[in-house]
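TICKET: design request
STATUS: open
ATTACHED STRUCTURE:
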């Protein structure tokens, strides 16, 4: 059996009992280490699971899946994934590869940012499309994310914005020369994300994401742990806020939609940089009927 097991969002204890049992019974256990990051060291997982873990980087998962799946038709093999297994298309791909090899697959789910984002107080059924925001460069500033947020805004829906992760990336020069030299890991922060969003709004000039009247909520290390951070405000307020206040990566951002319920406003007010501004914009701009 080939297992893909979600680890949740916080520490080694977030794995489910079913997942832990599968890990203990497996011949080989791989830890996928590039679509997200762990908040703890690998050795803490190994100590808790009483099992050695094999780090599986992007190259291994995407181009060496045959090695991961080796003997999975007669042995139990695990791939551990931070969050939930279906949080990245990579895991869908390896499941399809296993099916093509007639290897039975079992997925064991866990919490991911896709449901844990509810910690900010916005209702999950009021979210529209999730979008990804990549690092801008001097010559590449893709703005397709803007169109998808615009669609959500048009429907009054909230938008979860997933921020870019650069792990085991090669520079253009090293890639061109075929050198296996990798850049240091980079994780997009809330200030960088908001800055890019405002830059795109200024370029597009469609007034979809007005920095002074668009409410947003910054999320960091959501999962109920001590390092969790949630901060709410306008895009302008989030950009001006202390970068240190957002804590360690991973960061995500929620753009608040106009279909905003007063209970959502009340709940998220606890995280607001300026509570008066938060409520006034919710009432005057978002037309939320506050009590």
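STATUS: resolved
RESOLUTION: sequence designed for all positions
ATTACHED SEQUENCE:
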């Amino acid at each position: 059996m080939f297992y893909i097991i979600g680890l949740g969002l916080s520490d080694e204890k977030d794995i489910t009992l079913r997942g832990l049992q599968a890990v203990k019974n497996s011949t080989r256990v791989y830890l996928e280490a590039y679509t997200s990051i762990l908040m703890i060291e690998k050795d803490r997982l190994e100590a808790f699971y009483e099992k050695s873990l094999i780090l599986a980087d992007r190259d291994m998962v995407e181009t060496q899946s045959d090695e991961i799946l080796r003997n999975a038709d007669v042995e139990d093999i695990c791939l551990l994934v931070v969050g939930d297994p279906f949080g990245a298309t990579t895991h869908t791909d390896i499941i399809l590869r296993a099916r093509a090899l007639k290897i039975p697959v079992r997925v064991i789910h866990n919490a991911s940012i896709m449901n844990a984002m509810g910690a900010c107080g916005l209702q999950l059924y009021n979210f529209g499309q999730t979008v990804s925001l990549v690092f801008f460069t001097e010559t590449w500033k893709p703005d397709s994310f803007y169109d998808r947020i615009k669609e959500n805004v048009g429907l009054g829906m909230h938008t979860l914005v997933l921020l870019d992760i650069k792990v085991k990336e090669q520079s253009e020069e090293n890639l061109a020369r075929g050198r296996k030299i990798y850049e240091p890991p980079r994780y997009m922060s809330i200030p960088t994300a908001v800055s890019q969003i405002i830059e795109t709004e200024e370029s597009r000039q469609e007034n979809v994401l007005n920095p002074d009247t668009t409410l947003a909520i910054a999320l960091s290390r959501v999962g109920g742990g001590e390092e969790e951070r949630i901060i709410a405000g306008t895009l302008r307020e989030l950009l001006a806020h202390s970068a240190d206040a957002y804590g360690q990566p991973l960061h995500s951002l929620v753009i608040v939609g106009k279909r905003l319920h007063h209970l959502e406003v009340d709940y998220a007010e606890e995280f607001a940089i300026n509570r008066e501004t938060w409520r006034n914009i919710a009432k005057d701009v978002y037309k939320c009927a506050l009590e």
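CLOSING REMARK: The domain at 114-286 is CATH 3.30.950.10 (Methyltransferase, Cobalt-precorrin-4 Transmethylase; Domain 2). The chain has a mean pLDDT of 91.
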